[in-house]
Design brief:
Elements: E1 2-5, E2 14-17, H1 21-110, H2 140-174, E3 186-189, E4 192-195, E5 202-205, E6 208-211, E7 217-219, E8 224-232, E9 236-244, E10 247-257, E11 264-265, E12 270-274, E13 284-291, E14 294-296, H3 299-302
Antiparallel strand pairs: 1-2, 3-6, 4-5, 6-13, 7-12, 8-9, 8-11, 9-10, 10-12, 10-13, 13-14
């Protein structure tokens, strides 16, 4: 095949013979170059279009792996918290058992009706039924904590009430004259009619006398408040104590007084020292017990024992 080309070069037409082999080689090279260029361009365009999608694959896998690690860590921390709560729950249950044992012993010691203070039963409860929340179950340990909290509140109230009962009973018992008014000595004169040591005539004796060594401690026979501490006609140096519940005691003929008016005293506390002041024939203490303003025989209190 011959191709005639018309150009102005050299001022004459030229021709190209395609049937010659040296012509095919350049044309084939040019075609291959164009094809390679087109392929490369298409590949680059494909990379630009598909690049974000291909790159996203590894990224979402990293995010999923990170979330899985976070969930595992949260589960581990939650389990640790649950273990700590379970341990604390066990400790609280042990404390409740000890409180119940203490309360039961106090009830028995105080000789109180056990139906009034029952430390063996769960606190009674009631009320109208309430609609339960749908789709949510309270964990068992939360229910246990709520029950334990109610038990602790109930036990606390019972123990406070029991403490008040025991304290009131103890104060009443401590306010009842009991025992001897001296730490040592003997009863030298009884309550009632006797021969007056000064006149030799029959006279009424409102108390009992305890003789002993001068300076022997004189003690309160019950808890109370000192209402008199000083000299009084016939009694010499006198201490008078109001114990409440209508009880008053008097301690006369003392050498020294060691308490003051308004002072609170306990059973067995020293309040004076034995002497022979006032109308007395020797060292002794004149001991009187009054109930609602009237004298009573102190002997039944002297020989009584405090419970």
């Amino acid at each position: 095949m011959n191709i005639i080309l018309f150009t102005n070069l050299h001022g004459r037409p030229g021709s190209l013979n395609l049937s010659r082999p040296r012509i095919y080689v350049p044309l084939l090279s040019l075609g291959l170059f164009l094809a390679a260029s087109l392929f490369y361009l298409g590949f680059q365009l494909g990379q630009v279009q598909d690049g974000p999608g291909l790159a996203a694959g590894p990224q979402w896998r990293l995010e999923v792996a990170e979330q899985q690690r976070a969930v595992a860590q949260a589960r581990q921390e939650s389990q640790a918290h649950l273990d700590a709560l379970a341990m604390r729950l066990g400790q609280l249950q042990g404390q409740v058992l000890r409180l119940e044992g203490l309360g039961q012993r106090l009830v028995e010691m105080a000789d109180i009706d056990q139906g009034e203070f029952d430390f063996e039963q769960i606190p009674p409860q009631g009320g109208p039924a309430a609609e339960a929340a749908a789709g949510y179950a309270v964990p068992d340990f939360i229910e246990e904590l709520d029950t334990l909290s109610r038990v602790l509140d109930d036990r606390e109230q019972q123990l406070l009430a029991l403490e008040s009962v025991v304290r009131t009973r103890t104060l009443k018992q401590q306010g009842v004259p009991t025992g001897r008014p001296v730490t040592s000595g003997w009863m030298s004169s009884a309550y009632g009619k006797r021969t007056d040591p000064f006149t030799g005539k029959q006279a009424w004796h409102d108390g009992v006398d305890f003789a002993g060594k001068a300076g022997t401690e004189v003690v309160a026979v019950a808890a109370g408040v000192v209402t008199w501490s000083g000299s009084r006609y016939g009694y010499g140096n006198l201490v008078e104590i109001n114990h409440g519940n209508g009880y008053v005691t008097r301690y006369g003929h003392n050498r020294d007084l060691v308490v003051e008016v308004g002072q609170h005293v306990k059973p067995g506390q020293a309040i004076a020292r034995m002497g022979s002041s006032g109308r007395s024939t020797g060292p002794h203490v004149h001991f009187e017990v009054l109930k609602h303003g009237k004298s009573v025989d102190p002997a039944r209190f002297v020989w009584a024992k405090r419970s």
